[in-house]
Design a protein that fits this description.
The complex is a heterotrimer of chains A (about 325), B (about 300) and C (about 550). The two termini of chain A are about 20 Å apart. Chain A is an all-alpha fold. Chain B has about 300 residues and is an all-alpha fold. In chain B, about 75% of the residues lie in helices and about 0% in strands. The longest helix of chain B is centred in the first third of the chain and has 37 residues. In chain C, a hairpin with a 3-residue loop joins strand 8 and strand 9. In chain C, helix 13 runs antiparallel to helix 15. The chains are: A mainly alpha (about 325), B mainly alpha (about 300), C alpha+beta (about 550).
Chain lengths: ~325, ~300, ~550
């Protein structure tokens, strides 16, 4: 097992390099470049500034040379500076937005798991009952409702008409003048709506997984055995079935890891949250290569790590698919 | 698994389980209705969906315009009807493309193993690493924007799950007796794949496809939100929603009706898909594929 | 109407004001100087919250091209001259200027009481430094052209600047509207070409009415009033720009009183969503002619559009009023040329093409395009149908709607049209610059100086230059050169009138409309008045009466 993990880790490095190279090529080849964005459609814009910028950004060199320059600095964790006029270091720009995105995603994940597990379990144990039907429809409604629509609706209701919650942003303007507890409350009240919108849409996937997993486990022989032994239903479910049903779910959680640093562009722009989703989309649109690459490296690394973790737990669950290894889960 | 009772018996058993699931039956019925409406749209639409009329901008539902009009005065009902064709087409075609690629690559990986398997799985890893939206944006930047581009792009970025599924199915079924028997009798690889392995793998693929269609529709709506969807003036549910985004307060019909359409479609496909999966359950239970089905998305 | 602005200005300015009086539905006149009962004497204090769709690109506006950074830059920095409410150049940091007889020398006399925000005095040396920085090839500034035409800048004493040109340059004065940079802080960075990395780009020091306080990227920018501003401390104590990337959200924030100002409502918002009593009580809406125009541009290299009859047919086929009504709900004015209405060089005595689809068909038939096979589409003598693709950039709702409406109209005269919305970077790079388009819908700004050299002169047709349609007319070339070569307004007027007339006839592009600007300001803010240059011309004089101040004062 350890050997397997080590081998995978070592393989990940060339994979990472390969991924970044492909990304660099793809984004460079996409029509349009950072300069088309910087020099606007205005009769006064100057022409020769482009030559200057092309040289400064190294865009006049062949792609593999550009990539090599980038790679040399990237291994020292120097991702360069953004191409945009603010010219700030890529890590700074990412560092400004990562915390809030992580924070929001972690809370959402916690809420989703916290809600989806009981919903899924109950749906499974009461398959086809009214409860099951209602919750099924409910979660799918959440899945299919367009994010922005729900967001705007809630903003109108709670922000404009009732005035209970702030509409957008992360903090009120007088935040610096508030007491500590007031600050926490202020921050919280700004995040309520975005979290509600995101969770409502995300419940479906998870609770269906949970339900399916539970349904499967419940039909296994050892569960029937436990029942036959006369144990109460509650004990059967919570002690025997649940633990096993949760395992694949844990795998899913591991795979969701890379998603933690990504944000929904839609929710972020509607709620004016300066998060990673917007950064990524804007940097692609403006061909801000350094920022795009910085973002990708982080996501790629996280993904490779997450895949490894997932595959290991995967293997714990089902040894035959992976490699030699037993330990049948309890 | 020992000998099955033949395709006919299987179908009957499948139907018996499926028809007990009320939600799934509802879902299936609605899907049929939706497909019919989409096909008959040119006959049913009361107005030319693309004809603007600046005297009727954003008028509320009335007897002549049952669902109201959009910011350019076009009839929303007609646009929703015609939009269903595009939304459903996007769903089917992109999932079809994804499934085709996934089946091909997954089969190759699962059957041949070794180098091929490694290559394919690394390719899957590569594709999974990129955030989906980035992939979509990057590819769209290269291609001329059109409905075919969208469908191809969604298909090209969504085959990984199917590939994994098919590969896993192949890995397990390869060891089955009948395959070994077929091989020893000298049947060629292709024949084995198509006649024996694939039919067993079809079920989970089918389920994955059914669940993929609503996802594709929602992705199209999301792309329209970013302005990357189908070109004007053609309507899709996603871009009708998008057009009405700024006017939610005064023109609720612009978001309610396409939103409802998406909701009903997604709901029905999902219910139907889940019903199919549940009905195939007895079979799935006995193979590892059941677990992989959930994990290998 | 406005108390400032002497009577006897140009007729057009008065007419514009008159239009505004009748067209505005907010109580503009009444709220200005008098207010509701209870003192409304100008008071210092309060915070002004403005929403901005995009984050600023940086805090040295000379290096950026986005609107937000220029708006904020305008409050932190100053130029030697500025535009007043009637779009005329008036003194700012320069207290006066003179042109030499031959138009080759422009001499500024600077004010002596201007200080940088860090206390150091502003002198002619800073002007020289700004000039040197702008022409330095290492400086990535998008708008250098005006400075590159300068031959030399001399500083005979700390408060006099003499700018010398090779040839008379009409826009000379306008060039010095640019923001001045502090030598004592930026010299080393400018020379090294690392301006973007200087502290100035994150913590600017300027001479303007407001001082920079903080910038939280993607969230907000905060400015505070500068107490020793040379024109007097502004009344509003603090300005906060909130970055809100969604138009829908900005509108909701406006209604929930989370922002005090929106720079422009959409047509539908103005006409339909802000007409209820509560809104009109809490906000004042304004409407005045904007400063750019939207157009349909032909690629004149395309043989079909080389024929003027085809272009004229298009002009007859397009219903401009329908576009204005459909896209802007009537809140725009028809554009007949590239020069801004209300400025001294504008004339509307030009040829017009009325909406007349029958005439369009006749013209097309003359040019050889007829429906030969009865399929509703017109074809050339070889049977090839007239199809074209209208391209514009994605993300612009107005241009999309224009394309859709035009598509419909062209369909009626037998032309098959496809629309392509393309992401901006790709659009410019792949289609506009290499002239690989047939028809585009785009917009251009019309500055205050009518010089249009870069857009219409035949020498400007290169891929990186602005003559996108590929227009080449020797008469227009001559007039453009003539207009540029003088610094005396009366001499230039004739050239520009003639240029407008020729362009309106030749139709390298069809000028569609100039959208009205539709800003909204919270009612508690006084001193706001609409003028040809907009409402921000007297921003430093806006105030909130003491009792109505909502945020921390002082």
């Amino acid at each position: 097992m350890a050997l397997f993990a080590l081998r995978r880790l070592l393989l990940s490095i060339p994979l990472l390099v390969g991924i970044t190279f492909v990304s660099y090529v793809v984004i460079s080849l996409a029509p349009g470049g950072p300069l088309d964005f910087l020099t606007p459609e205005d009769p006064n814009a100057s022409v020769e500034v482009k030559q200057r910028l092309i040289q400064e950004f190294g865009l006049d060199q062949p792609i593999h040379v550009q990539y090599w320059q980038w790679l040399k600095r990237a291994v020292r964790l120097d991702f360069g500076r953004s191409f945009l006029p603010d010219g700030r270091p890529v890590l700074t720009k990412i560092g400004e937005r990562l915390p809030i995105t992580l924070f929001l995603n972690l809370i959402e994940m916690a809420i989703i798991v916290g809600l989806a597990v009981p919903i899924g379990v109950l749906s499974a144990t009461r398959q086809y009952s009214l409860y099951d039907k209602v919750t099924t429809i409910f979660v799918f409604v959440g899945f299919a409702t367009p994010d922005f629509w729900l967001a705007l609706l809630l903003m109108i209701l709670f922000g404009v008409q009732l005035g209970w919650l702030p509409i957008s942003g992360l903090r009120s303007l007088n935040w610096e003048y508030l007491s500590f507890w007031q600050q926490q409350w202020d921050f919280f009240s700004h995040l309520v709506l975005p979290i509600v919108v995101a969770t409502f849409g995300g419940l479906a996937g998870f609770s269906r997984y949970m339900r399916q997993s539970m349904l499967e486990v419940v039909r296994q022989d050892y569960v029937q055995t436990a029942r036959a032994k006369g144990l109460s239903e509650r004990v059967v479910i919570s002690k025997h079935a649940l633990r096993n049903a949760l395992l694949p779910v844990v795998t899913i959680l591991a795979l969701a890891l890379p998603g933690l640093i990504g944000g929904s562009v839609i929710i972020e722009s509607i709620f004016a949250i300066p998060g990673m989703g917007q950064l990524m989309v804007q940097s692609v649109f403006s061909r801000d290569y350094p920022v795009v690459m910085g973002n990708l490296v982080i996501v790629a690394t996280l993904t490779l790590v997450a895949n490894l973790v997932a595959d290991i737990t995967y293997g714990l669950v089902d040894p035959r698919i992976r490699f030699g290894g037993r330990r049948r889960s309890r | 698994m020992a000998a099955k009772s033949g395709p006919r018996g299987e179908m009957r058993q499948f139907w018996r389980t499926f028809s007990r699931n009320q939600l799934a039956m509802c879902g299936g019925a609605v899907v049929l209705v939706l497909v019919t409406l989409a096909v008959l749209a040119p006959l049913l639409a009361p107005w030319d969906p693309n004809r603007p009329d600046t005297k009727k901008i954003l008028s509320s539902p009335s007897s002549s315009h049952w669902l109201g009009t959009d910011p350019l005065g076009r009839d929303v009902l007609s646009r929703v009807l015609y939009g269903s064709r595009i939304s459903l087409a996007v769903g089917f075609v992109s999932v079809g493309i994804a499934a085709a690629i996934g089946v091909l690559l997954g089969a190759a990986a699962g059957y041949h193993g070794g180098m091929v398997d490694n290559l394919v799985m690394r390719l899957v890893d590569l594709m999974l690493v990129f955030p989906r939206f980035f992939l979509l944006l990057a590819v769209l930047a290269f291609l001329k924007p059109s409905i075919w581009t969208i469908m191809t792009v969604i298909g090209l970025t969504g085959w990984m799950g199917v590939a994994r599924l098919v590969r896993a199915e192949f890995l397990t079924l390869r060891e089955r007796e009948f395959v070994i028997w077929s091989e020893s009798v000298g049947a060629g690889a292709m024949r084995i794949i198509f006649r024996h392995i694939l039919p067993n793998a079809i079920a989970p693929i089918l389920v994955a496809m059914t669940l993929g269609i609503p996802a594709a529709i929602l992705t199209e709506a999301g792309l329209s939100f970013l302005g990357l969807g189908v070109q004007p003036p053609y309507a899709t549910w996603g871009n009708i929603l998008n057009d009405g985004r700024d006017y939610i307060e005064i023109a609720w019909w612009m978001t309610l009706y396409p939103g409802l359409a998406i909701l009903i479609t997604v709901l029905s496909y999902n219910l139907m898909g889940e019903g199919i999966r549940d009905a195939l359950d007895p079979r799935l239970r006995q193979s590892r594929v059941g677990r992989i089905l959930r994990l290998g998305r | 109407m406005p108390r400032r602005g002497a009577p006897g200005r140009s007729l057009l300015a008065w007419a514009a004001c008159g239009l505004l009086v009748t067209a505005c539905n907010g109580p503009i006149e009444s709220r200005s100087e008098d207010g509701p009962a209870g003192g409304s004497a100008p008071a210092y204090g309060d915070t002004f919250i403005q929403a901005s769709i995009g984050d600023i690109g940086g805090l040295i506006p000379s290096l950026t091209s986005d609107q937000s950074s220029h708006e904020i830059g305008g409050l932190i920095y100053d130029g030697l001259v500025k535009l007043d409410r009637d779009l005329k150049m008036v003194p700012s940091m320069a207290e006066s200027w003179t042109y030499s007889r031959d138009c080759l020398e422009l001499t500024f006399k600077l004010r002596r009481d201007v200080k940088w925000h860090d206390g150091r005095p502003f002198t002619a040396d800073d002007v020289l430094f700004t000039y040197q920085t702008m022409i330095n090839p290492k400086t990535p500034a998008p708008f250098k052209e005006g400075f590159l035409l300068v031959k030399d800048v001399q500083v005979p004493d700390p408060y006099t600047v003499r700018v010398i040109y090779d040839k008379p340059y009409a826009r000379a004065l306008e060039t010095w509207n640019t923001y001045m940079l502090p030598r004592h802080l930026l010299q080393s960075y400018a020379e090294a070409g690392t301006l973007r990395e200087s502290p100035q780009n994150s913590h600017p020091v300027g001479t303007g009415p407001y001082r920079f306080q903080e910038w939280k990227a993607g969230e907000k920018v905060v400015l505070v009033a500068s107490p020793d501003y040379f024109e007097g401390r502004p009344y509003l104590s603090r300005i906060v720009y909130r970055v809100i990337p969604s138009q829908a959200t900005i509108f909701l924030e406006l209604k929930a009183k989370g922002v005090d100002y929106a720079s422009s409502l959409t047509g539908i918002q103005y006409a339909r969503q802000t007409e209820y009593p509560a809104f009109r009580k809490a906000y004042h809406k304004f409407r005045y002619p904007g400063s750019g125009y939207t157009f349909v541009g032909f690629n004149l290299k395309d043989p079909r559009f080389a024929d003027p009859r085809v272009r004229q047919a298009f002009a007859h086929a397009i219903n401009k009023q329908e576009l204005i009504d459909g896209v802007r709900l009537g809140l725009a004015r028809e554009a007949t040329g590239p020069i801004r209405p209300g400025t001294w060089a504008y004339t509307d005595d030009v040829k017009r093409f009325a909406y007349d689809p029958e005439k369009a068909k006749v013209l097309l038939a003359e040019a050889g395009w007829k429906d030969r096979d009865g399929d509703g589409l017109i074809e050339d003598p070889d049977g090839k149908p007239f199809t074209l693709t209208i391209r514009t950039n994605q993300g612009n709702d107005e241009r999309k709607k224009i394309a859709e409406l035009i598509q419909q109209r062209l369909k009626e005269i037998g032309i098959q049209v496809d629309i392509q919305l393309i992401e901006w970077a790709a659009f410019i790079k792949e289609f506009v610059k290499p002239r690989r388009f047939e028809v585009v819908v785009l917009g251009l700004g019309s500055g205050t100086d009518p010089d249009q050299f870069v857009v219409w002169h035949s020498s400007q047709r290169g891929p990186d230059q602005m003559n996108r349609t590929g227009y080449a007319n020797p008469e227009v070339d001559r007039l453009l050169e003539l207009g540029r070569a003088s610094c005396v307004q009366e001499e230039r007027v004739q050239s520009y009138h003639r240029i407008q007339q020729i362009l309106a006839e030749d139709l390298p592009m069809i000028f569609l409309y100039t959208a009205d600007a539709l800003p909204v300001v919270a009612a508690r803010i006084r001193g706001v008045s609409a003028a040809p240059s907009g409402i921000l011309h007297n921003f430093t004089e806006w105030f909130v009466p003491k009792q109505q101040q909502r945020y921390t004062s002082g």
